[in-house]
Amino acid sequence: MKDKHLMGVAGNDESRKLIIIGGMHGNEHSGPEAMRRVMEHLLKAGHPVRGQVYFILGNLKALERGERFVDTDLNRIWSDEHLRSASTDYDYNELREIHALIERICGGRYEDCALLDLHTFSADSGLFCIPAENAPSEALARYFGVPYIEKLARSLPETALNYYGEKGMTSVVFEGGKHNTPEATDNLERAIWLTLAYLNYIRKEDFPFVDDMKKYLEKISAAYPHRLEMVYRHRLEDYHHYRMNDGYYNFKPVDKGEPVARQNGRDVRTPFGGFMLMPLYQKKGSDGFFIVQERKHHRH
Ligand SMILES: [Zn+2]
Predict the structure, then answer these.
(1) Which of 27, 171, 206, 207 is the most exposed, having the fewest neighbouring CB atoms within 10 Å of its CB?
(2) Gap between the Cα atoms of 159 and 139, Å rounded
(3) Number of structural domains, the chain?
(4) Predicted structure pTM score
(5) Which whole-number Å values give the CA distances from 220 to 183, 213, 243, in the listed order?
């Protein structure tokens, strides 16, 4: 299978497929770098892989430019409607090409496919992951031992995570750290290895370092709440001049009514208390910040 989005494939067992995407946002180079490392290691080690692992590059021109996207945010247009759209935006073309590639890989058998979508963020600290809203995705998210955000997929409906999650694929977004830092690349590499181990694509005895990677992620996440749910998304429109106030980072506690940003010359106060998530410290982006709250009791 040749395709310009396909970095490579590891494994010959076609019974199931794991798809790893890096660079869905072109200013996030840690994902592709982490994928390259794991792919080369897997191919070189030659140990059995129980399934096939596909390493897919996201927005190619945006990656070349180091920009989040070219015309439209590629990770906000995953829907059947957008796939049918006649838009000539470069990013729509990427959407159609990557989706066609994933269709060829999965052959309609979404339940035998899993997706790990690698991202980074513009704030200083606090890695986390986001499961699609199905039980296998939530189980994988819990396994990483890092904070995971429930109900975020639902408020970001046109992401690859949500699109393939709704088709029944095990899907998780892993947000590894601040854009283009060595730590973020290392954390995304850890996320890939842990996914391979958790889904039994590799044997732990062949790759014994995976246990230490899990311990490391647990250690750096120990101070943060783990099970969270999204309660507020501060959505931005094109006419908004938006600037986050200094000093926010992922999981910084915030009070209801706290001024957290300036928008068109006015204070933006958070309508909910809880923890800050993904405060926007870059130019491009359709979300100013999210507020998450700790979820202590299981609800059905
Ligand atoms: Zn991203």
Answers:
(1) 206
(2) 20
(3) 2
(4) 0.94
(5) 11, 11, 29
Q: How far is the CA of 121 from the centre of ligand 1 (A)?
A: 7
Distance 11 CA to ligand 1 centre (A): 27
Domain residues for the domain of 249 are 228-294
* CATH code assigned at 37: 3.40.630.10
Q: Give 198's contacts (C-beta < 8 A, 6+ positions apart).
A: 140, 143
160 C-alpha vs ligand 1 centroid, how far in Å? 11
Q: What is the distance in A from the centroid of ligand 1 to the CA of 48?
A: 31
Taking the centre of ligand 1 as the mean of its atom positions, its distance from the CA of residue 232, in whole angstroms, is: 19
Same structural domain, 71 and 211:
yes
Confirm whether 117 is domain-assigned: yes
Mean pLDDT by 10 residues, the chain (300 residues): 93 97 98 98 96 98 97 95 95 97 96 97 90 95 95 84 95 97 98 98 96 96 92 91 94 97 96 95 88 75
pLDDT of residue 298: 55
Report how far ligand 1's centroid is from the alpha carbon of 202 (Å): 27
